[in-house]
Amino acid sequence: MSAASYIGRVGGLAVALGVGTAIVTGQGVAYATPASDDGGTNVSSEGNSDGGGATNNTATNTATNTTPTTTTPDKRGPGKIDIKLPRLADIVGRHRADATTPGSVTATSIVKRFSDATKRVTDALEDIAAGGLNNVSVQSTSRTEKSSNSQERVAARSARTTKTTEAPTVTETTLTETNNPVGKTSANRLESARNWLASPQAAAGRAVETINPVPQPTKLWTPPRILAPFGTMQAAPDTAPTTSTSSLLTAVLDVVSPFAGNSPASPGVGSPLSWVLAGAARREIGIESFTPQALLAPSTNSLTYDPTVTLVKGVITGDNNGPTEGVNYFVVSQPSGGGKVYVDPQTGDFSFLPDLSSVQSGGTETFSVVVAETTPFTSAITGIPVVGSLASQVFVVLYQIPVVNVVLSPIIGRSQITSVPITVSQYVKEGQPVAFTVMVESFDGTLISTNYFPATRVASGDADVAPTILNGPGLATAGNIDPTAPNTVDGLVPGIDALRDAGYNVVTWDPRGEFASTGRLELDSPEFEGQDVKAIISWITDNPQYTRPAMETANDPWIGMVGGSYGGGIQLVTAAIDDRVDVIVPGIAWNKLNDSLYPHEAFKTAYSSLLLLGLVTAGARINPQIYGGIITGAVLGILTPGQQQLLARSGPWDLVGGIDIPTLFIQGTVDVLFPLQQALTNAETIGPNAEVSMIWFCGGHGFCLTLTPEQLAEQNELLLNNTIAWLNNTLPEADGNPYDEVDVPKFQFVDQNGTWYTADVLPIDSAFYAGGTPIVTNGSGGLLPIVPLLGGSGPQSAVSLPYSLGLGSQATNAINVPLNDPTTSGVQVVGAPQLTMTYSGIGTSRHVYAQIVDKKTGLVVGNIVTPLPVTLDGRTHTQTYQMEDIVWTYGDTVPDASDLELQIVSSATPFLNFTQYGFINVSSVSVSLPTPGPNVVEELADPSQQTVTVAA
């Protein structure tokens, strides 16, 4: 990804930060809306009533005003559209930031600061050029039961009926920017810099190619059209910022710190941060250094980037011979032929995936890498949560600006840009398996950027073909192209090489609307993202050299899927609509987004905003209804029927019953976004012929605060081994023989001490609790004032902001009910506590919240808070609630076995709502903690010693 793209993405962060401000201050929110609406075709979806009685009605998505535009292949991919882009102040993600209420951080003002600052850099460069520096240039270098090929397995597989989801005809708005390389042949680098900074590309955060014009990536396979093509989005008028200043340092520092100094600045005065940095610069290098003479002084930059390129296990790899201490490495421009490169930021080692066209032609692709010194300033800034990652992106921009990179080198460090040409034929013989990237066209013309890695045995020539694993990424995450990572999603998902070494080809991809793929993000909708993965499977089917056919006469390859979160949800969606998938391992996935983001009609404010934050900073092209839902939820704490319908059609909940293949669910005990109940609901509603196992681990969308690093490493090993074993038990080995079967327990879970347990039944089976004695507590209650924030649950101080907002913490404004201890030691609580409460009250609040606290550690069990719907009309009500599932093991000493306590609190940052006020008087409380039956659960002695059989 090139430098200029970061400017637009950091600017787009303004939307999410506006929401975040509303969360914290309650004073306002930045609202992103489409520029205009039209009467275009709308997306609709119908569903059945769910268990809660809610009926899914037709949802209407208002499309953005569209104008037909001539489709012209972009230099980095087909299907791109040439349009003019507006300035930064008019773009946030893909829509304008309209209005904010006083007191909030406004998206428009933040983005405008970027535009103004960019203009000031240009003006300053012009001033320098007018002073005699017109000729200054800066040099840059250049895989039921055990399966095999038995008749039973083949018969069962072929007996499946093809599952399809009827996709409606839709019109989608898309936006693809033009490719306008600058500074390639001009002798005047200052002029090139001015042209780049003033271009629509820089204003829109568009990637700027700095090497050669990029040939169109190969589109290997095109399926039949199911839907009509999407329309195009008309750009807003192009306008230019008007603010200027002659201070080069102030201009650049405003780019570095767009969130500093939100009040109007006096003429010629920069932000507060710029004052501090300017002072530091003066002390460091002296004010005299900012002169043309100083800028012309010879550079002492001795940084080098000199990688040795080889083919390693079918991947073109570079081992860096340059410095690794005190420096960082960043990709400045992606490969010129449409390929992809991953550079390790610490070591500079890289893995390169050429475009399939380059593999076929043996041609050359070139990318650029910048090596930059780390300084106390860059280390301090990049260490700040959220802001740090954005700042590092801005630093990459600064490293590329001639003269400016020299002026700021005492602050941001010296840097050197190197071009790396890769001639594919030099490392890959004709017909030799190699990792590559290719654009696969989906049903509606959307291009899905797809990455292929051959199994290790295939790459070495020891096998011709192998089964294929589709590894889906998380939300706002590109398809993994780093073969050296041992795992992804914080240890949940096996890394590429682990799967390849186990005998599988691996395919990853960028979901629609994200990164190199086109289209608009629809949250794993079966009508969209589900169809995209079907297209990828069809590409695999039509290219048998990349996978192993399931049967000699069937057009059906062996396909397994892994992935976490967004990559977990897409497995359930795909398996439900495409019978070519043979086995799945959905990690930390959901059943229904309504029950996850809007449980009991309480909006999950904190995590929803974090999701949006990730999307806008990744430059995702998002269904605009998602913006509106988060804004409405954050400000009012409610979702409209249309917004709820959008969530209902985004995921697998009404399709899971159609899944009849082996499924291993992995869910987190501390997952505050998709709690354990989501996996239990999926397991309960899945098809009757599906073989199902489940693992509960300490992790997920949240933070494991109770396990040691050693225990977490052991947990990662257990997850890896079980995932590979689950795939092996279904898929054939690369040479066609079955793997040795490895037993995967029906149910495995870990407690707060890091101890692992197994059971032969799942908690959805009544046999799990048969004979168990629930731990029951009856208590009085108390009077609880309801006010936002004051003394409520969250944020969790052990976790940094903003992530801590989604976690519960011990509250001070609470009704505390000490829970009874069991009569014997070592008792386990596994499942959902039941709470019955009698109350009365008056106020505007629609919820109070419940959590269970370990008073010994001060931690909320599972870090999770349950919203309790209440009716504060002055009358007395009695209500029974099912709290979120937890895992807890009592100690060996009774009665000093635990110190658990129920807290009923007035507010919680995970569901922060500033419209809730009043009081509630709880007259009685009853809590029942579920415990497994005797001899149902066994301790797993050493999880890390579980073994799997991999391909020899």
TrEMBL record:
Residues 39-48, 138-152 have a biased composition (Polar residues). Residues 32-83, 138-168 are annotated as: Disordered. One of its GO terms (molecular function) is dipeptidyl-peptidase activity. Residues 55-72 have a biased composition (Low complexity). This is Peptidase S15. Keywords: Hydrolase. It comes from Mycolicibacterium agri (Mycobacterium agri). It holds the Pfam family Peptidase_S15. Residues 724-938 form the Xaa-Pro dipeptidyl-peptidase C-terminal domain. Residues 73-83 have a biased composition (Basic and acidic residues).
